Each structure stands twice: as structure tokens, then as C-alpha cells.
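Crash report, auto-generated. Payload:
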Amino acid sequence: MKKFLAFAMSLAMVFSLAACNSGGSSASNASEDSTSAAGSSEAGAPAGSSGGDLITVGFAQVGHESDWRTASTNSVQAAFSKDKGFDLQFVDCDNNSAKQLEAVRNFIQQGVDYIVIDPIVSTGWDTVLTEAQSAGIPVIVIDRTIDDSDKYVSWVGSEFTNEGLAAGAWLKAYAEKKGIKEINALVIEGTTGSSAQIGRTNGFKKYADANGWKILDSQSGNFTQDGGQSVMESYCKSYQGKFNVVVCQNDNEAFGAEDAMNAAGVKYGIDGDVVLISFDACKAGLKEVLSGKINADFQCNPLQGPFCADIISKLAAGQTVEKKTYMKEPWYVSEDVLTDISYTNNAGNDVTEPLIHVTQDVVDKAY
Ligand code: GYE
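Recovered output after restart:
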């Protein structure tokens, strides 16, 4: 594969610049206006460019903290199988940024053909990405984003701020429909410094600020069930009887928050006193939406493996790739009382998006 690298690298660099100018591709909830979207391309095509050679790919995965993460790992491992032309080296970085930097440096030392990173946090990347660039190894970023460097070729993932904005827009419309006059919210954030945590926090806060909602507290549950449970246990003690909305930034935190609220005798969900909002919409999360315990769940689509493999196959074949690809992500609700939400998305576009009322069929088809 080495012989393709110099060419692919230079092409990628040229294309990165072009894509920066054009804004890249986008899906239904994404910030930008272009038409190509994850879900509609020929993702998953075999690599097939190296006359039988396998393309070596090092993947520095965040960890194993959630159902979302398991689905992401499975998606990447299936897309980068040997019979699809890849030799994947997978490192679970256990939510440890130092370990993730070390994994990437090891990939550079081994001289893999491509490096894929799902960055635990969005900063601290420029030095190691410069090292990868100097070694001629193209880097593809998936899921979470990198803020402090543009030394990667392509990214595929979600518009996290839109997820937070959509949650805010839904809560505003739902509260109006149900005659809920005051919002006193508790937020359980994801891993501090991850772009998923930053985007979801900022998007929701924008609605809170604009509508005079009170955010009583906002602490990290680290995207885990245990984290969600312990933060919610302390919230139940500190804010007993004072909150009517709980926002968990992923489903696993919501499961932990449910356990804590059950233990504290707090009634939540469609028949309760507390509206429970979640993100990810994994199968187990959507089951809770179906049973009415989670009121609304804003999907983050983890099935990025085929799109990432497609990007690498194209680079290996000397083709151009988009700088950004957004996943398509629907919004799920428990009650059939609102059909859609309208909001101004992170790119400043006014959008109206459907709300999917969860049925058993929706749960069965979920990741
Ligand atoms: O929401 C959470 C996971 O980066 C979007 O990470 C991902 C987040 C996801 O732990 O469940």
C-alpha cells in the first residue's frame, strides 16, 4: 500500500482545501446545505485497489462506555474486515486521552497505511497529527470532532449542537402543549471536553437562555450508566421536589438516572412529574421511550464504519473525498402529541424536522 500513500496524501490535502471552501457534505440535520449525505452514498465498497494487498488501518477508539460505543466498534470492525480488503488494528483507549495519543503514536511507528481516530476530547491533537502528516499517514476522524487542528483528511459524524437544539425545540413545544409553565432542569453531561458534550450542552442551553428556563445544575456523568446514577443520586438529594426536567446526554446515563429516581421515589416519563430527555436512541433507549419512561430521545447515529471505509477506499484509489460527512439522525418521542419541531440549526438555517413516535417496530429496527 505504501506506493499509494504519497499520491493519496497530496490529493487529500488538495481536496481538504477545496472541501473547506465548499462546506463539505451534509445530512438531514446537518449544518450545511450541500446534498451528499451519509446514508445515500456507496459506503462499504471493497477497498480492492492494491492487487490483493490489505490496507492496514489503525483505529484509536474512545473506549467501551456505552451502547453507542459498542455499536460504533461493531460497525468499524465489520466495515474493515479482511475480506473487505483491510487489516484493522483496534485499540480501546478506555476513555483516557493520554492512552489515545499513545495509540496514535504507535500506529505512526508501525507505519500503518491510515489512522482512524474517534477523539475522546476535541483539543490537544495538533502535535500528533503533525507527526502523522510528516510520516505521510492520512488521518480520518470519526464521530467526535477535533477543534485545534485541520491536519486530518476527512471526518464523518454528527452535528451535536443540532442534537441539543432539537432537544430544546422539542421541550419548548412539548411544554406549551402540556401547559408546563416553568422549566427547572437538571443536566447530566457527557465526557467533559468531548465535542458531543460541548455541542449538546450548548444547543440545549441556547433554548434555556432564550426561554427563561432554569438549569439548576449541570454535571458530567461521563457517558456511563454508573456516572448517570451517581450524579442523579446527588441531584435527588440536593434538588428534591425542585426539578421537572432531567436531560441526560446519552441513553446509558438515562438508565442510571432512572435507577436513582426510582430509589428516590421520583416519578418521571409520560405519566410522571419529571420529563426525561436522552440522546443516542440506541435499542435499549428506545425501549424506554416505548414504555414512556424516556419522553424524547435524540438520535446520534453510530453506524459510521462503512462511510469511513468508503473514504479510505477512495483515498487508496486516488479519488477525492469530502472533508465532512454528517450522519442522518431522526428524533424519537414517546407520545403522539407533536408531529414535528422547527428550529434554527447551528448553521443558521430554519428547519422543520419530523418527530418519530416510537413503536415496537421502531425498537426492533434500532441499533
Ligand atoms: O453519545 C455516547 C458515547 O461520541 C457521540 O459517546 C458519541 C457519544 C455517545 O459514549 O453514548
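Post-recovery validation: The domain at 4-158+301-329 is CATH 3.40.50.2300 (Rossmann fold).
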